[in-house]
Every structure is written in structure tokens, then in C-alpha cells.
Design brief:
- This protein has 297 residues and is an alpha+beta fold.
- The chain has two domains: 104 residues, FAD/NAD(P)-binding domain (3-Layer(bba) Sandwich), CATH 3.50.50; 153 residues, 2-Layer Sandwich (D-Amino Acid Oxidase, Chain A, domain 2).
- It has seven helices and 18 strands.
- It has a seven-stranded mixed β-sheet, with helices on both faces. A six-stranded mixed β-sheet has the order 9-2-1-12-11-10, covered by helices on one side. Strands 3-8-4 form a three-stranded antiparallel β-sheet.
- It is elongated, with a radius of gyration of 21 Å.
- The termini are far apart.
- The model has no long low-confidence stretch (mean pLDDT 94).
Length: 297
């Protein structure tokens, strides 16, 4: 095997996390090599699907709130540096029965962390966003600081910036394994090895294989994402509605993206997989019916 150049840091996985880590390390003056078994953005990784929600009032734990606020600042800084808007702060609208546990936990998070959150009746939701016809017994909570992230633009911009800063990006280059000594890490590739002082692993569904010697509870989970063509595209435009969610399995959706439609999915649930390299079953009625039920509401 051929040994290549030695680096200060190596990164396995150049999706959103890995590509931005590469930029930050290079900005701090380190020599960096990044590896990915595919060529991000692509349809195989944790970043796949084109967009991600950015939210502040985390019901999963108040510790996320400060992280999310700081992340928002960094996304805005990245947009200025790259010259491309990545975080679209269109807000997020939670809809469901008043007092429903998930919505209540969102409200509790906002109250505890002194976050801005607007309560809306079903009628107020419809008057503001005619796309949402919800039961009269429902209400809404609107987080104006939330929004959505353009993942593909973020990855392309960060990889371009990383390359400009001298990062060596090896795409379509799977890392077969790695081992560490007291003074360096060695990565085994298909056609040689690379050494580095430090290693960052942001490999998504493949992280379990790369970290199989560590007792980490990592699971690969199949998640289904669906896109719907709205009857009235104008009502669902990015300038007309926010990111939205319902408490049933935390089903969420985005404004209509030109050429793609309205993306919807379940945040909770999913089927655990044995291996990220095995074929993934196509969506069936059991995957899509819960999402369609919300879409038709």
C-alpha cells in the first residue's frame, strides 16, 4: 500500500458536519484531509433530503437551546462568508390540541428560556396561513426565530471554501478502517494509507462501522421522506408559510420548493437497519399513510 501525505487532521464523512469542520480547521491553520465514500450532497447520507429544520424552543431538553442559538449565529456568519443564504428564518408553526404534551413541552421550553413564542387560535392560523385548515379544537404556536436550512447549498459552499483554504477532499473514497498510536492516526484506504495527528469521524450511518471497537449505542435507522405537489402552489410558497409540524409522531413539513414540492416526514419512528450498505426497502403504505393523513387534513 502507498502511504500518502501526513496531515494535522483527517475527517471521515464530508456531509454537513464534516465539510464545515474541514473549513473551521483550515481557517485555524491546520492541514486537513477529508474523505467521503460518495460525493456530497447525495442521496445516501444523513444530510439527504435537501432541507433541515432549524428550531429554537427544543422540548427535547433545554440544553439544546443555547446550542441552537449559537448555531444560528454561525449559520448567519457562514452565509456572509460564502455569499449564499443558508438559513431561511421563515419561522416554525406547531399545530395541535391545546395542552397536548408535545406542544406543552415546546411552550415550557420557550417560557423557561425566555424565548419569543406566539399563541394562535385555529382561526388565526387560517387567516395568517390559508394553506392550513386545522380543526377548530386545535391551536398554534409560532416560533419566529426558527426556519429551514438549505443543506445542499451549505455542503457545496463549505466544500468550495474548504478547497480554497487548502483542504484535500477525497470524494468517492471510502475509508476501510483506521488505527491509532500514541502520536498519529492511520487511515486505510482502497489504494494506500493516510496519516494524521487527529481524526474526526462524521460518517453518519457508517459511523457505527468505523467506531465498532467503542461501546457506543449507534443505530442506522430508515426514515421516509415524502414530497407532495400542492393544488395551490401559491399558498405553500416559501414566502407564504413557515416550517410546520403536528404532534402525531412529530410529523413536519416545509414550504413548497420549486421543482420538488412540499416535503413532509415523521421525526419519530422509523425502522432500524442492520447495515447502511444493505438495500433499503422502498416506502409502502405503512410509511406514507400517516403522512398522507396529515397532508389531507
Amino acid at each position: 500500500m502507498t502511504e500518502r501525505k501526513h496531515y494535522d487532521a483527517a475527517i471521515i464523512g464530508l456531509g454537513t458536519m464534516g465539510s464545515f469542520a474541514a473549513v473551521e480547521l483550515a481557517r485555524r491553520g491546520f492541514s486537513v484531509a477529508g474523505f467521503d465514500r460518495f460525493a456530497p450532497p447525495h442521496g445516501h447520507g444523513s444530510h439527504s433530503g435537501g432541507t433541515r429544520i432549524y428550531r429554537i424552543a427544543y422540548p427535547e431538553g433545554t440544553g439544546y437551546v443555547e446550542l441552537a442559538q449559537r448555531a444560528g449565529e454561525l449559520w448567519d456568519e457562514a452565509a456572509e462568508r460564502f455569499g449564499a443564504q443558508l438559513l431561511h428564518r421563515v419561522g416554525m408553526l406547531y399545530m395541535g390540541p391545546p395542552g397536548e404534551p408535545f406542544l406543552q413541552s415546546v411552550q415550557d421550553s420557550a417560557t423557561f428560556n425566555r424565548l419569543e413564542l406566539e399563541a394562535l387560535s385555529a382561526g388565526e392560523v387560517f387567516r395568517r396561513y390559508p394553506a392550513f385548515v386545522i380543526p377548530e379544537s386545535y391551536s398554534g404556536l409560532f416560533d419566529p426565530k426558527a426556519g429551514w436550512l438549505d443543506v445542499d447549498a451549505a455542503i457545496r459552499s463549505s466544500q468550495s471554501q474548504a478547497t480554497a483554504l487548502g483542504v484535500d477532499c477525497f470524494l468517492d473514497q471510502p475509508v476501510k478502517g483506521w488505527d491509532a498510536t500514541a502520536d498519529h492516526v492511520c487511515l486505510q484506504l482502497e489504494d494506500g494509507t493516510v496519516t494524521a495527528q487527529s481524526l474526526v469521524i462524521t460518517a453518519g450511518a457508517w459511523a457505527g462501522k468505523l467506531l465498532n471497537d467503542l461501546p457506543l449505542p449507534l443505530t442506522v435507522r430508515r426514515k421516509v421522506i415524502a414530497w407532495f405537489d400542492p393544488v395551490n402552489t401559491e399558498l405553500f410558497g416559501a414566502d407564504r408559510i413557515p416550517v410546520f409540524t403536528f404532534p402525531e409522531n412529530f410529523i413536519y413539513g416545509f414550504p413548497n420548493m420549486p421543482g420538488m414540492g412540499v416535503k413532509m416526514a415523521e421525526n419519530w419512528g422509523g425502522v432500524d437497519l442492520m447495515d447502511a450498505d444493505r438495500p433499503v426497502a422502498a416506502p409502502d403504505a405503512s410509511d406514507l399513510d400517516p403522512i398522507r393523513a396529515i397532508e389531507k387534513r
